[in-house]
From TrEMBL:
This is ABC transporter permease. The chain crosses the membrane at residues 6-27, 34-53, 73-92, 104-130, 142-163, 199-220, 226-242, 249-271, 277-297. PANTHER family: HIGH-AFFINITY BRANCHED-CHAIN AMINO ACID TRANSPORT PROTEIN BRAE, HIGH-AFFINITY BRANCHED-CHAIN AMINO ACID TRANSPORT SYSTEM PERMEASE. InterPro entries: ABC_transp_permease, LivM-like.
Length: 311
């Protein structure tokens, strides 16, 4: 029973980290209509910045400043937000398909830098000894996982409430207006590029925070953690939950992660060991089938974005 509770806490912690990433994507796509397929790149920037700043000194690479975790997380948000703002200024004049190609290219560049800049990122060996919250409780897995769950849940709740407030604010209404009818919004004196860069940067900052939280939760990061599969997972989570809905982003993250983990468990339990590497593709198949069913039965996702009524 204790092991089951411990695993449930671990599962929910991982799902909520994905929920953080999906909330950032929902701000960019669901609220603003910006097609970002470089999610993994912004998550990686946050993870590496926080890891470099908070890990102990390491003669093999630059960094190791041993700063407190909150400073590492704040720096991760600022760095990822800055990268997103630069990408936004340079590319948001492009149409959605060209923007998608550009953001995907950015993610590939970030992953290649992480893989080859060994003196900064540890290269293919990654960065270890990342400080974990409540590390002194690691000998008691249940308490350790529950404590980590509490921290990640609190961060996710604060981000959720902040994004809900922003979505209902005049700033959020301008973003929705630009998404629905850009010409009408511009005719009212709103700068489409200015607001979109802000939304893209803020969404990138949330993704960077998620990357930092994940890095400190796991305690180790490497370039293979930030492959395009991560972007595919997060987009699926948003589409399943409901694009434009923050509640849907959280629900979709938990549901899709449950299917991903469940299919992996099924493969491990019922597929012969020598065939498991090949059968791992069933995870992608399971997610793809679920995505097709959602698009057929509920094209707007499980939780549609609420549209306020006039008057």
């Amino acid at each position: 029973m204790m092991e089951l509770l411990s695993y449930a806490a671990f599962f929910l912690t991982t799902a909520l980290v994905f929920a953080l990433i999906t909330l950032g994507l929902n701000l960019q796509w669901g609220l603003t209509g910006l097609f970002n397929v470089g999610v993994a790149g912004f998550v990686a920037v946050g993870a590496y910045v926080s890891a470099i700043l908070t890990t102990p000194d390491d003669a093999a690479r630059i960094g190791g400043f041993a700063l407190p975790l909150p400073l590492g997380w704040l720096a991760a948000m600022l760095a990822a937000g800055l990268v997103a703002a630069i990408v936004g200024v340079a590319t948001l004049r492009l149409k959605s398909d060209y923007l998608a190609i550009t953001t995907f290219g950015v993610a590939v560049v970030v992953q290649l830098v992480a893989l080859n800049a060994q003196g900064l990122t540890g290269g293919p060996f990654g960065i270890g000894f990342i400080p974990r919250p409540f590390a002194t409780l690691a000998e008691t897995p249940l308490i350790f996982n529950l404590a980590n769950l509490a921290v990640v849940a609190l961060v996710t709740l604060l981000v959720y409430l902040a994004l809900e407030h922003l979505a209902k604010s005049p700033w959020g209404r301008v973003l929705k207006a630009l998404r629905e009818d850009e010409r009408a919004a511009i005719s009212l004196g709103k700068s489409a590029r200015f607001y979109r860069v802000q939304a893209f940067a803020l969404g990138g900052a949330v993704m960077g925070l998620a990357g930092a939280v994940q890095a400190h939760f796991i305690g180790f990061i490497a370039p293979e953690n930030y492959l395009p599969t991560l972007t595919f997972q997060v987009w699926t989570m948003l589409i399943v939950g409901g694009s434009g809905s923050n509640r849907g982003a959280v629900l979709g993250s938990i549901l899709v992660w449950a299917i991903w983990v469940g299919s992996g468990t099924f493969v491990a339990a019922f597929v012969p060991t020598d065939q498991q590497a090949r059968a791992a593709a069933l995870q992608i198949v399971a997610i793809g089938v679920m995505l097709c069913l959602i698009l057929l039965l509920r094209p707007s996702g499980l939780l549609r974005a609420r549209v306020p009524r006039e008057g």
